[in-house]
Amino acid sequence: MMKSLIETAVIEIKQLADVEPQQASKKFELMASTMTDDVLVEVIEQMDIVTLTQINSHHDISCPSIMSELMTPEQIRDIVCQQPLYWEEKVKNNADELIQHTFDFLTYLIRIQDSEAKQAAILECIAEDQAGLFYLSIPFIEYLLAPAAEADQHSHITDNFDDEDDGETVGYTDRSAEEDAHSLSIDDPRSLLALIRELAPEVEKSIKNLLRSENSSWVAIIDSFVNELVLQAKEKNQVDDEYAEVDDMFSFLD
Q: Confidence band (pLDDT; 50, 70, 90) for 1?
C-alpha cells in the first residue's frame, strides 16, 4: 500500500511541477506533515531530475523547502548541472544577472542544510562534476578576476590568488571572523566564498585553479562557462524536442 501511495504522490507532484512548480512544492510540504522523512526521501528518489530542478529553482533562502533539505548531495549536484536549461534569456545574456542568479541558487541549496558535514559533501559533490564546477565558480569570477581598477573599489580584497592565509584576503580566512571583520552578509558572494574555504578548502582551490586556466577577461569567461554549461546540461538530459532549440551561443560583449 505504501508503494502505491508513493507512486501516486510522485505522479501528482510531477503533474503540478509541469504547470506550477511552487504548487508542487506546497503539495510536497503538505505530504511532509503526514509522512515520515524516510517515505519523503523515497518520494524524492522516484522523481526525475527535471521535476526536482523545476521545483527547487523556485525557492530562495527566505522560503526554504523540506525537499531541498532531504535531497542527497548527488541529487543536488544533478539539479545544479540541469538548471542552465531553465535560465531565462535575461539571465543567460547578462553577466550581472547570471552572477546573482547562480549565487542565489547555490546559497539556498547550501545554507538550507542542517549540518556543516552535508554542506561540505554538497560542495565536494558539485565540484567533482566539470559542469558543476563551472556553475560553482560563476558567482566568484568577478571578485577573483576583476581588473585592478575594480579591485581598488574593494580595497580589502587583495591578492586573490594567494594561497597563504594572510588574514586580509576576503574569503580565504575563517568564515565567522571574516564576516565579522568585513561585515559580510549572507547576500554577499564573498560570504559564500568564505564558507567554501572553511568547509571544503579543496573545492575553493579547484575554483581558483579553474579560473587560473582561463586566459581571458572575467566577462568572457562567464560567456564561455554559459556555453559549456548549457551544452553539458543538454547532453546529460538527452534533450529532445522541448529544448532542441536552446541557443548554444550567448554573448555578454555585444
A: low
Given a contact cutoff of 8 angstroms between Cβ atoms, the answer to whether 15 and 49 are in contact is no
List the end-to-end C-alpha distance of the chain, in Å, as a whole number.
58
Query: Rounded to an integer, what distance in angstroms lies between the CA atom of residue 205 and that of residue 207?
Result: 5
- The pTM (predicted TM-score) of the whole model is 0.78
159 Cα distance to chain centroid: 26
Top pLDDT among 31 and 145 is at 31
DSSP 139: G
DSSP labels, 46-113: HS-HHHHHHHHTT--TTS--HHHHHS-HHHHHHHHHHGGGG--HHHHT-HHHHHHHHHHHHHHHHHTS
The closest of 162, 110, 171 to 135, measured between CA atoms, is 110
How many Cα atoms occupy the beta-carbon half-sphere of 27 within 13 Å? 18
